[in-house]
């Protein structure tokens, strides 16, 4: 299942429907371009808090998923822990897959 999310993220990066980094994601959320924000599990607590405030302010869905190393390698963006999906279709698919993975973990 994780492979599907990684594949979709990689495809979003190749089709330029992915923005990365703190400042870029905030700027794009203010412009209402980001449809889904993915934060990695190993982000600093204060960074997560600030990004969640911005998500609430901009009415953007978010998910906490994976590690910076995993997602950076998949997307080709080294050292990043914040990923914004700008395409609505990609956002819906990735969101569903992450929810499915997290619900399966709770079931065990």
UniProtKB/TrEMBL annotation:
InterPro entries assigned to the protein according to its UniProt record, in alphabetical order: Ribosomal_eL30-like_sf, Ribosomal_eL8/eL30/eS12/Gad45
Source organism superkingdom: Bacteria
Entries under Pfam families matching the protein: Ribosomal_L7Ae
Domain (Ribosomal protein eL8/eL30/eS12/Gadd45) ranges: 4-92
Protein name according to UniProt: Ribosomal protein eL8/eL30/eS12/Gadd45 domain-containing protein
Organism: Emergencia timonensis
């Amino acid at each position: 299942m994780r492979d599907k999310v990684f594949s979709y993220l990689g495809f979003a990066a190749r089709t330029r429907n992915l923005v990365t980094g703190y400042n870029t994601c905030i700027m794009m959320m203010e412009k209402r371009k980001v449809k889904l924000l993915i934060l990695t599990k190993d982000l600093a607590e204060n960074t997560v808090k600030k990004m969640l405030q911005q998500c609430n302010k901009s009415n953007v869905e978010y998910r906490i998923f994976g590690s910076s190393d995993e997602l950076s390698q998949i997307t080709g963006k080294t050292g990043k822990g914040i990923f914004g999906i700008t395409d609505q279709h990609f956002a819906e698919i990735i969101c569903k897959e992450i929810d499915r993975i997290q619900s399966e973990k709770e079931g065990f």
